[in-house]
Amino acid sequence: MTELRGPHTNGRAGGPEGWGPAQLATCSSELSPHARFRLDGNDLHLDIDIVPWQAALGDEVVVETLIDKVQVKIPESTSSGDRVRVPGRGYPARSGTGDLYISFTIVGPPVLLERERHLYEKLQRATGEGVSAPREIRHEC
Length: 141
Fold this sequence. Notes:
By secondary structure, the protein is mainly beta.
């Protein structure tokens, strides 16, 4: 809710305009959801997809904010759901600009090329990790 005080007419038909007793006007506004950002107070939240090698090795990516672009470091050994904070790149408001929080989701390649499959199999052998059997999920009532 925003309150505005300002000039008004003195109330006489055709009379001069001036500054009389302060008039109070209130208005409210609602922000529409953004296609990419979620707003929490003055903080913005953004989800971005990264590929497995970016998650494992770390990387730097350029992220478009509401106002400009910023270079963001993806830390080594990032997991899905991990997030980084970019101070001062959130929603600008009178009370101050919030922060930008970027959450990462690791996504596999849409198509696995033969060379990529070979490299994943090599990585699997090197780590000693096999393809695990499906785990049983129990629901307790």
